[in-house]
Amino acid sequence: MNAMNYFGLLDYIFMGGYLLILLGMGFYLKRLASRSLENYICGGRHIPWWMMGVSGMANFLDLAGTAVIISFLFMIGPRGLFVEFRGGAVLILPFMMLWAGKWHRRSGCLTLAEWNIFRFGDNWGGRFAQQMIVISVILFTIGMLAYLIIGAGIFLSMFLPFSPMACSIGLIGLATFYNMISGFYGVVYTDLFQSSIIIAAVIYISIKAFGITDSAEQISAVAQQVTGTADWISGMPRWTVDMPKGYEAYRPLMAIMGLYLVRTIFFGAGSGGDQRYFGARNDRECGMLSLFWTVLMTLRWPMMIGIAVLGLFAVHNLLPNHDAVAQASQLIQAHYPGTEGQAWDALISGLSHNPASYPAELIDQLKTLLGTDQFSGKLQLLSSQGTINPEKILPAVLLISVGEGMRGILVIALVAAALSTFGSTVNLTTGMIVNDLYKKWIRPKASTRELIFASWASVAILVIAGFFFSVTLKNINDIWGWLMMGLQSAILVPMFLRFYWWRFNGGGYAFGCLGGLVATIIQRAIAPELNEGWQFVITLAGGLAGAIIGTYTTQPTDPEVLKNFYLKTRPFGIWGKLKQQLPEEERIKVSKEHSRDLISVPFALLWQITMFLLPMLALIKNWKGSIITFVLWLIGGIGLWFFWYRHLPKTNFYED
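User: That's the sequence. What structure does it adopt?
Assistant: C-alpha cells below.
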C-alpha cells in the first residue's frame, strides 16, 4: 500500500477533528495558565488527584518509548518487560507512591530546584545545588526531546511522503505551540482527553491480536520462524536469550535485568520531584494519584504485546524469506555505502515514498527480491544490519494490519502519547528555568506576563537544542539507553543522598551532579558505543566522587535549615539527632510510617511487575503462565493493601 493513499476519508476526519479540539483546548486553557506562575507550573494546586494520575499515565506512554518496548517484545516476547526495568517498566512508581511523592509535597515548593533551597538553605551551597539541578534537568530534557524527535520521525515517515526530520519538525512544532500557551493546565486536561483515545486503541489492538490464532503454540511457532527465539510465549526470565544483530548486548538477560533493577531502586528512592506531587493537596492524594497512575500504566502492555504479535504475523506473511531481507539490505548498501542510523531511515523513507527519485535499476532489483505486493511496507521494515528493523514494527503494523477508520484513531493515539510526554517534560523544565533561574537571578520583580513570555522563549530554545542534538544519534534505542543509564544516572547519587543523610549538603549535591554529568558527557563523546552497564558504572563513579568531595570540602548545612527540613518532611535514613528532637509519641508515629513504607516495597514491586505481565500472557493464551502470574499478583496486592493502603490518612500524616 502506498503511504500517499494510506489514510481514507474517515481517517482524515478523525485526525482533523483531533487537531481542532487540541488547539481549542490550548486557547481556552491559556486564560487559566496565565493567571499566575503557580497556575502555569503546577495548576495552582487545584487539579484533582485522579486527573493527575491519568496525566501521569499519558506522560509515561510516549511514542518513542512505546516503539522501543514493542521492538523488544517482538524479539523476545513477554520477557521484553525485563529489559525495560531500565525505565519503560516505570518501577520508580512504587517509590513515588510509598514515600518520595509525599516527601516532596510537604515542602510546599513549586519545583525540584526550589526544593533544593528548602533542603540546603538559601546560601552558597543551596543556590549552587539549585542551579545544578536546573542544568541537569535542561540537559536531560534536551536528550528526551531528541529521543522524541527521532521516534516521531521514524513513526510518521512510514505514513507520510516526507523525511523523518520533516515529520518531526511538523509534530514538535504543533506540540511546542500548544504547550507554550497552556502550561500545566494544558498538560493535565489534554492528557485526560488523549487518554480516552489511547484506551480505545488498547481495546482495539488487544481484541485484534487475541483473535489472530487459536493457541499459544501457533504464536510460538511463527515467532520461532520470524525471530529465532525459542519459547517466545514464556514470561519467565532466562539467563541468556537470542538477539539479532545490533542487539547482542542484551543477550545476558538476567544480568541486564539485575543491573537495571538495582539502578531503578536507587533512582526511585530519590525520585518524586514531579510537578504532579508539588500540585497535590495532601499526602493521601500523593499516594492515590501514584496508585491510579500505576494501574493505568497496565493498559500499555496488552496493546504493545498485541502489536508485537500482529507484527510477527505481518512479517511472516510479507517477508518469509530471511535471505531476501539480507540481500535487499546489501543491495541498498552497495548503492549507498556506509549509510546507517538516521541516514538509513531517511533513505528508506525516500525509496518507499519517492522511488522515481532513485536509480530505476535499484528499484527494479528490490522489487524482484521483495515482490511488488505491498512493496513500500516491506521496504520500510529493512534495517541496515540486513535484518527486520524491530523499531519499525509499530508503524508497520498500522500500515499493514489495521483497517481504514481505525488507522486514523490509532495514529492519533500514538501522536497523543508523544504530545503528552513532550508537554510534561517541557513543562517541568520550563518551570525550573523561569522560577529558579530567570525570576531568581535575572528579573526578580518581573510581572506575571513577562514570566509567561520567558517560559515561551524557554520552550523554543529547548526544542531547537533538541533538534540539533538529534542529528548526532543513531536510533531510538541508542538514545533511550544512554538517557536512562547515562544522563539520568548522572544525578542518581545526589538525588538519593539528599533524602537519607543529614551531612549531605548543597556542595555535595552540586558537585555530585557536576561529576556525574561530566563523566557521562565525556563517555558519550569518546566512547558512544560503550554498553549500558559500563555507561552506568562510569556515570555513577563520577557522581559518587563529586558528591563525597563536595560534601566534605564545603560547609555543612545550617542546623536550623536541616531542622526545618526534617520536621516538615519526616524522612527515614541517617537523621538520628534530628529525630530525637521529636516528642516520643511523634517518634513512634514516624517510625511506624517508615516501617510500613519500607515493608511495602517488595509487595509493590511484585504487584506492579506481575500486573504488567499478566495481560500480556493472557493475550497470547499462555494460560499456565497467566495463572502463576495471577497468584503472584494477588500476593503482592494483598501485601500492599495490608501494609500500606489501609494505613493511608484521610488527608496528611502529620499536619492538620
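The first helix runs from residue 9 to 33.
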